[in-house]
Amino acid sequence: MSTEVRVPTLGESVTEATIATWFKKAGDTVAVDEMLCELETDKVTVEAPSPVAGVLKEIIAAEGETVEANALLAIVEEGATGAPSAEAPKAEAAEKREAAHTTPKERAMGEGRSDVEDAPSAKKAMAEAGLSRNQVSGTGRDGRVMKEDVAKAVSSGASAAPAAAVASQGPREERVKMTRLRQTIARRLKEAQDNAAMLTTFNEVDMGAIMELRSEYKDLFLKKHGTKLGFMSFFVKACTHALNEIPEVNAEIDGTDVVYKNYCNVGVAVGTPNGLVVPVLRDAQAMGFAEIEKTIAAYGAKARDGKLTIAEMQGGTFTISNGGVYGSLMSTPILNPPQSGILGMHKIQDRPMVVNGQIEVRPMMYLALSYDHRIVDGQGAVTFLVRIKEALEDPRRLLMDL
């Protein structure tokens, strides 16, 4: 019996996707829920699994094609088995001979990889660097190699002379089509500049109090909650307190109306090999420190593996972007439409500061708040940033709702 494979549910506001990679070809045997292809939308990467066990009879939509929601991708013949090729016995004999001459370590390195498809960007990066699959350790799901794994292998010197030779013989320029995610990022960032009266205000915060608090309670926090106590939970809680006091930073413009949100869905910008994504902490105002840290850690892992869902990135009312993890000392973050505010965190750096008339070396961080001046006045933006500074420099204010 023939079974149709269709584009999976893409989520709200997503109407089409592009076929990024087919992991199977017509005639291949497939198992139930085995990944057949990967589709790129303007928000996330979506996998299309086989609904039944059998043989991939026909591929309807080829790589690079744009398909609409619920479009037909392929036909699977349920219960059938793939016809073995004439070369199969010879290939099997060759594999046995090769196995007899390999060491247990070499065989172990190759085991379990035949049914794991690496990320398309990783395959391309390995080809460019002249690396074989066995030279890269995969950190993705089921040992899948991601683009950052290739970068680590290259930096550790895994690609020696062969990579240099390939690079020297390659073209001086290369034209690569932008992924749908990158196209959407580019379009939305440009729209933010074109449609909002965007302005940025700056301040700085002494991180000493939070660093001392983390140092004192990090072991107890980890033991009780099973997760590390990071800086982001302090920033999220400080933002929710400030958003409650300055509600226009948590609002959005809809035509001639202003929509005020009585909840704080805080987006946390996460860098991935394919671009920046912003998963959302829903009702962050009601979350505790441990819940925030656990959720952010889970989102980070899913982002690295390309497993974030569209639902997890929708509905944000405010965004936090941490450029400090990359060494940024100061920047002007761009709004995430239709939101009216985004907070930029930066690198913590020791600087001489005047404290009670004395010069001291303090761990300082620059903060940047970009906001839509159409709805947020300068006084409100400055007050918002000052409230965050006060909460971070004296974390007790968070407990007392001050």
Compact summary:
The protein is an alpha+beta fold and 402 residues long. It contains eleven helices and 19 strands. Strands 9, 12, 15, 16, 17, 18 and 19 form a seven-stranded mixed beta sheet that branches.
Element-level helix/strand string: EEEEEEEEHHHHHHEHHEEEEEEHEEEEHH
For the termini, the CA-CA separation is: 66 Å
CATH class of the largest domain: Alpha Beta
Q: What is the total number of structural domains?
A: 3
- Helical percent range? 25-40%
- In CATH, the topology of the largest domain is named Chloramphenicol Acetyltransferase
Q: Round the mean pLDDT to the nearest integer and report it.
A: 80
Shape: globular
CATH-defined architecture of the largest domain: 2-Layer Sandwich
Backbone structural class: alpha+beta
Number of strands: 19
Strand content: 15-25%
Rounded to an integer in angstroms, the radius of gyration calculated over CA atoms is: 25 Å
Q: Largest sheet, described in full?
A: 7 strands, mixed
Low-confidence stretches: 83-94, 96-114
CATH superfamily of the largest domain: Chloramphenicol acetyltransferase-like domain
Could you state the oligomeric state of the chains shown? single chain
Contiguous helical run count: 11
Account of the protein in words:
The protein has 402 residues and is an alpha+beta fold. It folds into 3 domains: 2-78, OB fold (Dihydrolipoamide Acetyltransferase, E2P); 116-176, Dihydrolipoamide Transferase (Irregular); 183-399, Chloramphenicol Acetyltransferase (2-Layer Sandwich). Helices cover 33% and strands 25% of the residues. The protein contains 11 helices and 19 strands. Strands 9, 12, 15, 16, 17, 18 and 19 form a 7-stranded mixed beta sheet that branches. It has a 4-stranded antiparallel beta sheet with strand order 1-8-6-3, with no helix packed on it. Helix 3 (120-129) runs parallel beside helix 4 (147-155), helix 8 (232-245) crosses helix 9 (289-304) and helix 8 crosses helix 10 (378-393). The longest helix is centred in the middle third of the chain and has 18 residues, at 208-225. It is globular and about 80 Å long. The chain starts with a strand and ends with a helix. The model is unreliable at 83-94 and 96-114 (pLDDT under 50).
